[in-house]
Design goal:
Low-confidence stretches: none
Helix content: 40-55%
Mean pLDDT: 91
CATH topology: Rossmann fold
CATH superfamily: LmbE-like
CATH architecture: 3-Layer(aba) Sandwich
Structural class: alpha/beta
Shape: globular
Strand content: 5-15%
Bound molecules: zinc ion
Distance between the termini: 52 Å
Order of helices and strands: HHEHHEHEHEHEHHEHHE
Radius of gyration: 18 Å
Number of domains: 1
Largest sheet: 7 strands, mixed
Length: 256
Amino acid sequence: MAFYLLISMFVGMLVIYKCISWQTQIPERKRKLKQSERLLVVIAHPDDECMFFGPLIVTAVRKWCLEDVFVLCCSIGNHYGMGDIRKRELVEACEILGVHRDNIKCIDDPALPDDPEVDWSQLRLRSLITDTISEWNPSVIATFDESGVSEHRNHRDLSRCLTAMQKNAAYCMKGRRLLVLDTVNSVRKYLQYIDIPITLYGDWDLITIVSRDHTGRIQRAMRCHASQMVWFRWLYIVFSRYMVVNTFREISKQNA
Ligand SMILES: [Zn+2]
């Protein structure tokens, strides 16, 4: 038994080593943002930053050393009446990821309820995002793609709004990059490091892969969301590929 365990650990380490060496062969523009970039991550609920965008945020802060990383959370996650607690948990989790508390906004707006059955007001979202962009002046904006990773309606609404703003060349989007987080199928979603070789053969515009240390940091940040840590979330943080890798597609005016 111990022999097989050793062999599988050895194979695992070999796969990780190979992945890291493959990573260096990816063109720099697809694996790095410049230090001068200002990154805004737009999420729907407190805990999205850890569950889905952890590799991007940790890499941006600790590896690329970006000047500023911001998080705009468009609801307080009040579906079960725990909005105030979740708001506090968001700040604690972001600080572990490396985002300064002054760079976090968590919005409590009746037009943007935490509810998978409700469409968010696109008008309200657009106005909120426009105000946030004019305040923080990000050069790169990251959010969900049209499937929202988990198909949650609130996630998809964010994608719809930002994609439309980019497509219609909204004034506030001028000169800014919009990156949307790839949704993968539910088998790949739970393959953790095993999904990396599959991911590397995909088509994306930006990739972030994190080391074991940084995965540990993302998991620690996720544990700040104590109100959300029901049993299946523990499984999620152990097995999800979104704890170790993020890939993004760039939405430009042409392909939006
Ligand atoms: Zn969410």
